[in-house]
Give the backbone structure.
Amino acid sequence: MSTIQVRTRIDRNLKQKSDVVLKRLGLDAGSFVSMALTQLVNRRGLPFAVTESDAGYFASEYGVTAAQSAKAGAAMRREIDHARRTGKLREITELADLDP
């Protein structure tokens, strides 16, 4: 396969932050660009979502451990269940559910 060099300018901070994420995913910037462009061509539109786990994201972004993340998630589920039981939260599954 014949390759070409592509040069582009991006914000220095964005490059540094993206390198950190790509490293966690086992990729480098060149591999990512090739993957993204391949998907762009194949889908004829913007490509795919490649993300780290929620626990990994929360740890890197907020310094939250997996245990703290799980605890917060459990608390949120309890609040949602309580809101459903008390009628403060309604689920919309069909158009008729939008009528008050």
Notes: DSSP finds four helices and no strands in the chain. Residues 53-100 form one domain. The longest helix spans residues 66-85. The helical segments are 12-24, 29-43, 54-62, 66-85.
